[in-house]
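Contributing new complexes? Match this layout with inosinic acid.
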Amino acid sequence: MKKKGKSVVVTGGVWGDEGKGKITNYLGEQSDMVVRFSGGDNAGHTIVFNGNTYKLHIVPSGIFKPSIKNVLGNGCVVNPKALLEEMAVLKESGFECNNLYISDRANVLFDYHRTLDGIQEDRLGARKIGTTKKGIGPCYTDKVARMGIRMCDFISKDFKEIYRDVLKIKNEELARYNSPTIDFETSYQEYQKVADAIRPMVCDTISMINDAYDNGAKILFEGAQGTLLDIDFGTYPFVTSSNPSSGGVSTGSGLGPTKIDEIIGVTKAYTTRVGEGPFPTEMNDNVELAQEIRDRANEYGATTKRPRRIGWYDAVIMKYSCNVNGFTGLSMMLLDVLSGIKKLKICDYYELDGKIIYAPSAKIDDFARCKPHYIEMDGWDEDITGVHSFDELPINCQRYINKIEEILGVPVVIFSVGPDKYQTIVRREIY
Ligand code: IMP
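Output block (do not edit by hand):
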C-alpha cells in the first residue's frame, strides 16, 4: 500500500502581492517539492534567506535548499532566457539550481511575445491592461491558438523547423504593427544555445509530482499573482492570462483534484492593487493615509517597481475568492502596518443601482460603479511586531481578525506582524 503525501496550495486572495513569498518560504522549507503551476516571470516573490533578500520571478522558492525539488509545471509559460538570467544570479550567490525541473509540456515564451505584449498595450490606449510586459498574454494566446512551442519541442531536433514556421507567422504580425521583424537564422542560433542549457531540466513533471505524492511527499503549490487576476474569475479584462486560483493547480501541474489536501489563501490586512482596473475600496478620500501605508509596507511592485494602489479590507472580493478557491485557511499578512490607525474599515457589501450585492459584478463597468459599504472598527495603538500568539494581540486587533473570519467563514490560521521569519505566527500547523 502506497503512502499518501500531503499537498498544500498557497494562492493570492485578491490582486496578488499579498506576501505569498513569506508563506511559501516558510512552508517550502518543510516541503519535499515546490511547484509553480501558472504564470511566468511576471510574478515577483521577495524571499529573505539567511539575511539576504532575493527577488524571484519564475524560479520556485524552494530553490535555496538542494534537497527540495522545484518544478515549473505544464501550466507555466517559461521565458528560457529570463530563467537562465535568474539562475545565474542565484548561482553567483552559491545556489547551484540543480534541483529545478521544467515540464516538457510547458509553453516557451519567446522574445516576440514580449514585443507583442508592448504593442498590444499601446494599441489598447486608454483601455490598456497595465501588464508587466513580460509577454505573458501573447504566449498564452499562442498556447490556446495551438501555435505555441512547448518545451519538449524546444529541446528537440525538430525545433528548427517548428521555429521557422511559427516565426514566419509572428514576423507577419510584427510587420503589421510596423515593428522590426526577427531574423530567423540569428534568433534560431541564439535559442539553440538556450535550449542546450535548458535541456537537462526538462522532463515529465506530471509523473514526477504524482509519484512523489503517492510516496508520501509534502508538496507545496506556490501560487503567483492572485484570484482577482485569474483569467476566468478576475476583474476581466484587467487580469493575467492564466488561472492563478486553486483550480489552476490540477490543470497546471497534473496532480488530480482529489489529491489536493489544503488550500491557503494569502490576504493582506488591507487591500492593494497594481496596474489599471476598478478598485472599490481604494482610499481615494484619504490619499495621505494611503501613502503612509504604502511607505510603511513598501508597497511598490517587486517586478515593475510601480507604486501599489491602497484600499480598505474588501471582504466582498475576499468572500468571492474563498468561494472560488475553496480555502481551508487564511494567512493574514502585514497586520502590523495597521497599528496606530484610529478607525479601520472592512467592506462587507456593495451597493449597485440601489441594490445590495455580496459578490463582484462580472461586468467591469458595473464593478467600477459598486459603492462599498463599511463596518467601522476601532484600531489599536500598540506595536504588535513582537507578539508570539493571537492572545498577545491587542483586543481590537483580535476583533478585527475575528470580524473578517466571521464574514468569510474561513479561519485565519497564520498571521504576520513583520517581515522577519519569527514574525509569522502559526495558529494551526499546515503540514
Ligand atoms: P500580465 O500578467 O503581465 O499580463 O499582467 C496582467 C495584470 O496582472 C496586470 O494588471 C499586472 O499588474 C498584473 N500582475 C501580473 N503579475 C502580477 C503579480 O505577480 N503581482 C501583482 N500583479 C500582477
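Reviewers usually confirm one structural detail per submission. For this one: The chain has a mean pLDDT of 95.
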